[in-house]
TrEMBL record:
Protein name per the record: FadR family transcriptional regulator
PANTHER family xrefs: TRANSCRIPTIONAL REGULATOR, GNTR FAMILY
Entries under PROSITE patterns matching the protein: HTH_GNTR
Pfam families in the record: GntR
Highest taxon of source: Bacteria
Length: 219
């Protein structure tokens, strides 16, 4: 899992500086809660960075409740004077390897628990096989798996962790190799074969990680 964490950290460096630049710009421009911030295009020009990087930085700020987007109106600054969440974002998530590793580890724990629950929910398997055949992103598949879990708190936590992972490392596209391993994982559930399920789940994560160092604590 460490190479995936390193990838997250590297990706974060691309736009963490933009987050700080945005904070400085907001202060310099004297913007207050409720004020409209410049458009994505204008920010790209002012900060001299690509629009995709600006978009990621804005997504990070919106996820943390620091800005809000109103359809047809633009993006507005929210009141965060009592929270200092930009500093939290920098220290705890984007600049902290351990925090990034904890996010991935906790997300994996929820996914594995959801997979175990599927052993008693075999009637839902057809929908999952269809999802695997059509999905473009890995989280599309695991979102459905987790949403079939009766633990609503785990669902909410997974969604939050997935948002952070996506913000930091981008979306993980499903390769044909991943699709094959996920299909075999679901077949293992149909056959009540826990060993195959844990092996294939681990294999999917190893493909993502490109490093066979993921924790062996699976079931």
């Amino acid at each position: 899992m460490m190479s995936e964490v390193n990838s997250l950290h590297s990706h974060a460096k691309v736009y963490i500086g933009i987050v700080h630049q945005l904070r400085e710009m907001i202060s310099k421009d004297g913007l207050k809660p409720g004020d409209k911030i410049p458009s994505e295009r204008e920010l790209s020009e002012r900060l001299n960075v690509g629009r995709s990087s600006v978009r990621e930085a804005l997504r990070a700020l919106e996820l943390l409740g620091l800005i809000e987007t109103k359809r047809g109106e633009g993006t507005f600054l929210r009141d965060f004077r009592d929270h200092h969440l930009i500093d939290l974002l920098g220290m705890f998530i984007l600049e902290d390897h351990k925090a990034q590793e904890d996010i991935l580890y906790t997300k994996m724990m929820i996914e594995k628990e959801a997979l175990k629950d599927l052993f008693s929910e075999k009637k839902k398997m057809d929908a999952l096989f269809k999802k695997v055949s059509e999905a473009e992103n890995l989280d599309d598949v695991f979102r459905d798996i987790v949403m079939m879990n009766a633990n609503h708190l785990a669902q909410r936590i997974w969604n939050i962790l997935n948002d952070f992972e996506t913000l930091i490392c981008g979306e993980i596209k499903i390769t044909e190799r991943m699709r094959e391993e996920i299909t075999r994982m679901l077949q293992g559930i149909e056959n009540q074969d826990k060993e195959t399920v844990q092996e294939k789940y681990k294999r999917v994560r190893e493909i993502v990680d490109n490093d066979a160092t993921i924790s062996n604590i699976f079931f």
